[in-house]
Design goal:
The protein is of the alpha+beta class and 87 residues long. The chain is built from 3 helices and 5 strands, in the order βββββααα.
Length: 87
């Protein structure tokens, strides 16, 4: 469950061995008591929910290629690395 980014109270993690719940490449976004999973690279919601303001995951659009590279590294047993937060 490596953390790959953190911004505006949102923590982004990749559970790359979570194929039982989500077979597609995906990330988990956590905010307070909320959690949601988003498919990569298109950002489609797979499960869960975030508050409306935090739901706008333009960060996925901005970093889509980097996220897919992180997914590939993670599934190969490597550290996925960090990705720049929103500022």
């Amino acid at each position: 469950m490596p953390e790959i980014s953190r911004f505006f109270g949102i923590v982004i993690r990749m559970y790359f061995r979570d194929f039982a719940r989500h077979s597609a490449p995906h990330l988990h976004a956590e905010y307070a008591e909320f959690e949601a999973a988003y498919r990569l690279p298109d950002g489609e919601l797979l499960a869960g929910e975030l508050p409306r303001r935090q739901r706008r995951m333009t960060w996925i659009e901005i970093h889509g290629e980097e996220l897919m590279q992180a997914w590939e590294r993670a599934t190969e047993g490597q550290a996925p690395g960090r990705i720049d937060p929103l500022r």
